[in-house]
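Morning!

This is the sequence you dropped in the shared folder:
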Amino acid sequence: MTDNTPRLDHVVLWVRDPLASADFYEKAVGMEPLRVTEFAAGTVSFPSVRLNDETIFDLAPLTLAEHMTMVPGAADSAGHPVNHVCLSLSADAFQTLRSRLEERSVPVSDYLYDSYGARGLARRSFYFRDPDGNVFEARHYE
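The structure's back. Tokens below.
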């Protein structure tokens, strides 16, 4: 990628069990797992999952919290998920995600309609939680 316009590069999620989380994001959400073998072997600090060509989610174990010293109070963020992260999908991928979650008995909210977001009003959206309580919204615009 040679375009240097601002983009979201990654989101770090605090998780209790990074391997279980990677499995959830791969099988229930459909994301590509990254560095799982290396994490299991102890050669990297955390695995990740790929949302798209430009964005990943790092699955940071809570044990790393004590090392978060880059800014005052950063270690205190462990265990406190953000309000939610929104995934913008095609209509087909949106329905596929909901089906995968329901097949795995992951609770999902009712549909919401015409929710405002980065691209205007989304036709439909719904919410779900990962195994660590992080809240996600899935939506589609077309």
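Headline: The first helix runs from residue 18 to 29.

More detail when I'm at my desk.
O.
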